[in-house]
Structure formats: C-alpha cells, structure tokens
Amino acid sequence: MRVAIAGAGAVGRSIAGELLENGHEVLLIDKAPTAISVERVPLAEWLLADACEITSLDEAALQRCNVVIAATGDDKVNLVVSLLAKTEYGVPRVVARVNNPKNEWLFNESWGVDVAVSTPRLMSALVEEAVSVGDLVRLLRFSHGDANLVELTLPPESALAGTQVGDVQWPEDTSLVTIIRGTRVLAPTADDSLEAGDELLFVAAQAREEQLEDLLSVRREDAVG
C-alpha cells in the first residue's frame, strides 16, 4: 500500500515509521526545509513541497496513493489537503488530523475526510475507556455513513455475559468487529461467547449508540424480570 503523509513533524514521522515497519510505501511531504529529516525516517520518500498546491501533489503522484494522511499542525492545511486528495486525485482513503476540537465539525465527507482523528478527543476517550465498565466510549468518527468506532467493556452483571455472538440481536447499522479479552484480540464469529470484562469494539451508526449501550448494559435480573 502506498501512503502519502502531509506534514513531516513529529506526528507525521511517527506515523511513517509505523507504516514502514508494516511493509508499506510512504511519502512524506512538507514545505519547511527544516522538517526534511531524511535520516530520521530513511526508508521513506521525501518531498519538499507545499501539499496545498496542485503542482506539488502532481509531483507526489497522489493518484497512485491508496491512503493520504493530512497530519500537519494546521487544521486549514489538513482540510485543503483532504479535499484535494479526494476530489482531484480520487484517493480511496483520506485520514485527517484535527488539532483544534472546535474545528472537528468541519472534518467530514464534504471536505473529503473519511476518518477524522482528534487527539484531545481520543485521549479523553482512552481515559474513559480505562476507567469505565458498562459505558459506551466513542473512539473514532467515520464521515461516511455517520458511523463511529465505539467501545464498551461488558460488565459482569450484563445479561449478555455467556451469550454467543450469533444469538444476540444487535441493533441495525451496528457491527461487532473485535473482542479484546485480556491479551488476546479475537475476530468474532457467531459461535464465540461474550464474557464479562470483554472489551467490545463496534462500528455503529451514531443514532444506534444509545440502543447498543442499553443492550449491553442491561442487568440479568432486569432481563429476567
């Protein structure tokens, strides 16, 4: 997979390093000469250019990229890069960094963003996830289809503890994608059982989140009653 990253600061370089370790091709783009540190990510391609300029993106051959990541520290730049990547070059997947939470509402399909990553929101979500059992926590927002990646730790008293995945009538527009059980990551099948303490990750429509939380948190005695 070929990935272009706009913004070669600490965030962009860190993402590039992870992707390279996983065997992907990575192009880092930045207009600041001081940001071009080839020795820090030697396996990446580097381009000194303004990612908001069509000529720069032509030089980067953005049409060949499977993913573009707008990772600069400027939300305006990230929005412009996202829009150009999607509308001018037809990049299948565009991920954008949100620096100011007040701007998060802009990072949607209208601006070409498939996934918006807000660091403050993600950090607070991870804190909530670490201390909350039985409460639904929103981790990421996907622009297409108004869907979110959400997590809930199944409480011991849940009526679904011990139930097989295939026997649960999940809400519409909801998909259980992963079960994290201790150190194990499980791709759920219909025959897998849900256990108390499981971290359940769903992709769910925002309108279904409350219904999903109610389903997972209902107590055994309430279900019986």
TrEMBL record:
Keyword NAD found: yes
Pfam families, sorted: TrkA_C (PF02080), TrkA_N (PF02254)
Sequence ranges assigned to domain RCK N-terminal in this UniProt record: 1-117
InterPro entries in the record: K_uptake_TrkA (IPR006036), NAD(P)-bd_dom_sf (IPR036291), RCK_C (IPR006037), RCK_C_sf (IPR036721), RCK_N (IPR003148), Trk_Ktr_HKT_K-transport (IPR050721)
Keyword annotations from UniProtKB, A to Z: Ion transport, NAD, Potassium, Potassium transport, Transport
Domain RCK C-terminal: residue ranges: 137-218
Protein's UniProt keywords contain Transport: yes
UniProt xrefs under PANTHER family: POTASSIUM CHANNEL PROTEIN 2-RELATED-RELATED, TRK SYSTEM POTASSIUM UPTAKE PROTEIN TRKA
The protein, known as: Trk system potassium uptake protein TrkA
